[in-house]
Amino acid sequence: MKKIFVFVILGLNFYFAYSKENDPVVMTVAGKEIPLSEFLFLAQKDSSVDLLNKKSLDDYVTLFKNFKLKVAEAESLSMDQTYAFEDELNNYQTQLKASYLSDKEGEARALREVYERNNEIVSISHILFPLPSQSLSKDTLAGYNRAYEVYRRIANGEDFDAVGQSLAEDEKSGVTYETIDYLYPLKAYKAFEDAAYTLPVGVVSTPVRTAYGFHLMRVNRRIPNPGKIQVAHILIAEPPEDAGPKDVLEKMFRDKVNEVYEKAKNGEDFAELANIYSADDKTNTKGGILPYFGLGEMIKPFEQAAFALKNPGEISEPVHTRMGYHIIKFLNRKERVPFEEMERGMYMTMKQGERNFDLFKSFEERQKAKFGYVFNRDAYDDLQRLCDKYFPTDTAFYHEARQMTKTLMHMDTMDFPQYEFAEYLRLYPFSTKTYSGDFLYDVYRLFVRDIVTELEKRTLNERHPEYNQLVKEYHDGILLFEISNQRVWDKPLEEQAQLEEAWIRELNEKFPVEINWKVLKNLKKFIRKTPGK
Q1: Mean pLDDT per 10-residue interval, the chain, length 533 residues
Q2: d(CA 260, CA 28)
Q3: DSSP state, 485?
Q4: Are 437 and 384 in contact, with CB atoms under 8 Å apart?
Q5: Distance, C-alpha 17 to centroid of its chain
Q6: pTM for this structure?
Q7: What crossing angle do the helices spanning 270-277 and 246-265 adopt, rounded to 10°?
């Protein structure tokens, strides 16, 4: 059986080499030939170098030669063989490849779309009709019909909340009813969030499927995101019930709350009051100051009272929660966190979950177009029908799918049959979806992504000839830093110039150097042919 293409091309490294005529050897240092392309690549990154000016060229040749001599000594000492060196270089190569194997503009658009959703906070109620943890079409159809029947009842005039509460009270139904006061982006399944941010206020959705099951959703309100606030508080804890007569304890407690509140309101030092009276051991020695928080992050009565305060220094009336009474002082407000500060966190969240398809969609579509992607719907439908019988991770699914030979897709002059995808699915069954059809589709998209990524890797050097130059530059840069640090830079500053001069003389005596002046004197005809220029 033909090997899976993804595994065949993994690790292939096609080096795009220029001919000797277009990329002659410009220098040989310690027996190692250095091509003109490398010399020019580094020279043209330095704006102070004019290669067509004799003095500037001579100075740069000396500088370049000394640089290569230092690298040669580092290699002679096996500095390029250490674990730390290899690890740093590998990390750089991984990051550099990733910069080519992505569409940063497309990713930024996907991140910006999520960020813009944060401009408002959505409150919603939903009725959930659960599905099994792995559901087939027959399970899904029954669940959908059940949810849709309830949707029709509500559409015909029954009250959404009353229906939801009634169904939830019936333990046999398995239905849950819930109100989410504050929904933020990336805090729920994508289908759920998409519905929440697109439904008009007061409108009930048709059944929305997530990994939990089918939801009937209603948006209760949308409010502008007020950002985050910081407050300080004094917590007056209620006395234990066995500490004395209840009526006496309640009066003492109320008196204490009122006493502390009056002191705070009359301008006594809030931090000192927190230190003396507050039962919150985490904040009472810190002036009662709490970290910044947004809506939905604190107990509701506390949160409502805190966000009702508007001006720094403003103090709330005592607010009761299950912990006791809080006296709250408003300190500061932060508006929306800038996109640049949230970008990295949003990227990691999207990359690691189901939103990865949104994040990388632009890159995948671009690559599919580049490599002539053709999808065979008929072949995919065969696999989809298997999902009606088995969940894709079931061994029975694999045993049947691996016998299928239709071309599932075509790309870059190659056909990919169904059985190759079946093998990929067996090895990489990665999806958060619990419905068999959704699971299959997620893994298929990952299959396509892996192929287009490996195809791009295969031609990386040809399409981006500067890639090898950048890797070489970083390789030599690490060695230059390490050897220079040992020989010169970790010595007293006043000694460094003399040490550098002596070291260069030593290197010139130690390693042979040949400079191809014939090429260097005719740079004019080579400069425009430089790889990547």
Answers
A1: 34 34 87 93 89 92 95 95 94 86 92 95 96 85 93 97 95 92 94 96 96 96 94 89 64 89 95 95 95 93 95 95 94 90 94 93 94 96 94 96 96 94 95 93 96 86 82 94 94 93 95 93 70 43
A2: 83
A3: I
A4: yes
A5: 35
A6: 0.72
A7: 160
